[in-house]
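> forwarded from #structure-qc
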């Protein structure tokens, strides 16, 4: 076999039709639960001014420091293009949009959801890609633990719909206000004075740039030192503690089980108060299926008025992986109902109308109206896994008839040409036809 000349770039993958059945299924669950809770859909550009991510997510986070895809533009001399980056997540762009479109004028909270590709120039490994899909929920403009609880509940519902909730655990923590964090970070820095030599080079640099990241350091020495370091909890104000306690009470009320995890800090800087992640029960923090939290300072950081917000995003590839592992089957909407085979110029012409009428009635129809023999067309119909084949040869055209073949049963019968469509519809069942009703036309379609 000759060497393939082109392949998908490292860390990316084609979403092939089989996986799109999962994608569509997930999107349906997401849209359904989002609409039930009053969310509206938004799309922001795939690339944004790089500063939005630097300021929002944080200059010294892995996502910005190491994983940002810069958009350099086509021409090198076009220096302005270098200020753009492909979005590594959706929250910062949505908050930029909230400010840009004056959404603070709308009744608050503004609830938005988005589904789309994100890009992180990470080292590719299982469940970690350079281009992946997220669905994302944001609730902007009000601060109340009941909003955090409702958001988490919507996510739990989606995971239940997709039948993977029993594979996940909800990890939750409160990381206090920005001021709490600052005091804690100062205390942490003080604690590590004179102990730097016990730290790895990476942790030493984290101590300078983003000391909170030491908490989830993988280094054993760092973890040992941390045992006697000041605990974050000591720095939480009563207000933050109360906020968290109320949230947990609400989660209990909603019957949501969670694990309180004081080490959960998340990899993005914009969080305040509530943070949470949905972990895979078997692999823990690695390959979390979703994560989010409250970001009460983000909109202001991006130039808006102080506005609280809370949100979550989930990785769709990771969800698909779980669904497959759990043996969750999704409906195959791409099945071929009828293959139309023909022979001769007259039959071919007639079949064009037949094919379009069948489709109009909601029958998935393939009309590979080539010149091959009827026999080879039948083989073709088999390969397409068509349930029925309609055959129109020269004789049938002359007689005004048509042959309907049940591919599985291997049986066929001849009938009047006019009977073909009603007969196919009867066999498939009216309820299985793929037609748009007005409700669908006003809403969204499966494809987006
Ligand atoms: P995040 O934890 O960075 O949060 O990403 C959310 C989810 O996206 C992860 O739990 C994971 O499932 C998926 N994900 C992240 N990186 C990759 C990757 N390289 N390959 C495959 N899947 C990945 C955020 O993005 C925040 N914007 C969430 C949020 C929304 N916070 C408030 N609102």
């Amino acid at each position: 076999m000759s060497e393939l000349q082109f392949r998908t770039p490292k860390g990316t993958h084609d979403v092939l039709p089989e996986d799109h059945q999962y994608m569509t299924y997930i999107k349906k669950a997401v849209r359904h639960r989002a609409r039930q809770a009053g969310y509206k859909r938004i799309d922001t550009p795939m690339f944004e001014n790089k500063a939005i991510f630097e300021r929002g997510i944080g200059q010294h986070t892995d996502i910005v420091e190491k994983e940002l895809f810069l958009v350099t533009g086509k021409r090198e001399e076009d220096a302005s293009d270098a200020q753009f980056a492909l979005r590594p997540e959706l929250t910062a762009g949505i908050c930029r949009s909230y400010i840009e479109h004056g959404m603070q004028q709308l009744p608050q909270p503004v609830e938005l959801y988005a589904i789309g590709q994100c890009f992180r120039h990470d080292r590719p490994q299982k469940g970690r890609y350079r281009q992946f899909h997220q669905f994302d929920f944001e609730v902007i403009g009000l601060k109340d633990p009941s909003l955090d609880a409702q958001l988490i509940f919507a996510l739990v519902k989606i995971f239940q719909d997709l039948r993977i909730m029993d594979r996940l655990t909800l990890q939750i923590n409160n990381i206090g206000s920005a001021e709490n964090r600052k005091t804690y970070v100062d205390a942490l820095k003080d604690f590590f004075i004179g102990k730097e030599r016990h730290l790895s080079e990476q942790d030493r640099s984290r101590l300078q740039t983003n000391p909170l990241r030491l908490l989830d350091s993988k280094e054993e020495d760092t973890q040992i030192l941390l045992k006697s370091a000041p605990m974050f909890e000591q720095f939480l104000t009563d207000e933050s503690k109360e906020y968290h306690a109320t949230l947990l009470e609400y989660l209990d009320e909603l019957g949501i089980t969670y694990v309180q995890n004081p080490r959960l800090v998340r990899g993005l800087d914009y969080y305040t108060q509530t943070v949470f992640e949905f972990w895979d029960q078997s692999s823990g923090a690695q390959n979390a299926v979703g994560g989010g939290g409250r970001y009460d300072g983000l909109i202001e950081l991006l130039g808006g008025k102080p506005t609280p917000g809370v949100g979550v995003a989930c990785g769709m590839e990771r969800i698909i992986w779980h669904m497959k592992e759990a043996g969750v089957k999704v409906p195959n909407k791409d099945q071929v109902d009828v293959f139309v085979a023909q022979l001769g110029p007259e039959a071919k012409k007639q079949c064009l109308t037949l094919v379009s009428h069948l489709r109009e009635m909601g029958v998935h129809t393939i009309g590979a109206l080539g010149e091959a023999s009827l026999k080879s067309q039948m083989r073709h119909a088999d390969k397409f896994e068509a349930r029925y084949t309609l055959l129109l040869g020269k004789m049938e055209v002359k007689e005004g008839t048509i042959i309907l073949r049940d591919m599985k049963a291997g049986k066929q019968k001849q009938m009047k040409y006019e009977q073909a469509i009603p007969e196919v519809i009867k066999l498939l069942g009216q309820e299985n036809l793929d037609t748009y009703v007005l409700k669908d036309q006003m809403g969204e379609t499966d494809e987006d």
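QC bot note: The mean pLDDT is 91. The chain has two domains: 17-177+237-325, 338-432.
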